Amino acid sequence: QVQLVESGGGLVQAGDSLRLSCSASGATFSILSMGWFRQAPGKGREFVAAITWDGRDTFYGDSVKGRFTISREEGKNTVYLQIHNLKFEDTAVYYCATPHPSGPAFTGSNVGSLNLYDYWGQGTQVTVSS
């Protein structure tokens, strides 16, 4: 059973930067492809970013391209989401997720689908004040 724990959220001002972390356990991290999603109040869960198990490929949602960067650190079993120039509309609960280790590979067409992911963290709240 894969367990994911997010951290790093908080109350920030517009224009600030923030780094979210997601720590994984219960499986060999080096074979896990990882994704980040967010959910704003009253809205559905939105794809933000993803990274393949080997770190070679990254994917981003259209609304965050250029400001968000996903990365991974194998020695710490952690995936990061670096956010620059935070905007009010970035206010949301941010979740990390991963498919089952034997699940399909990430592609540009499937990586944003909620159904691809089997394990989710509890989320970390990011609130941006204007």
Write the SSE topology.
Elements: E1 3-7, E2 10-13, E3 18-25, E4 34-39, E5 45-51, E6 58-60, E7 68-73, E8 78-83, E9 92-98, E10 119-120, E11 124-129
Parallel strand pairs: 2-11
Antiparallel strand pairs: 1-3, 3-8, 4-5, 4-9, 5-6, 7-8, 9-10, 9-11
Shape, please? globular
Kindly state the percentage of residues in helix: under 10%
The parts where pLDDT drops under 50 for at least 5 residues are: none
Average pLDDT number:
95
- Main sheet: strands, sense, barrel: 7 strands, mixed
**Radius of gyration over alpha carbons?**
14 Å
Number of strands: 11
Q: Note the run of SSEs as H and E.
A: EEEEEEEEEEE
- Which structural class do you get from the secondary structure elements? mainly beta
Number of helices: 0
CA distance, first residue to last residue: 40 Å
**Percent range for β-strand residues:** over 45%
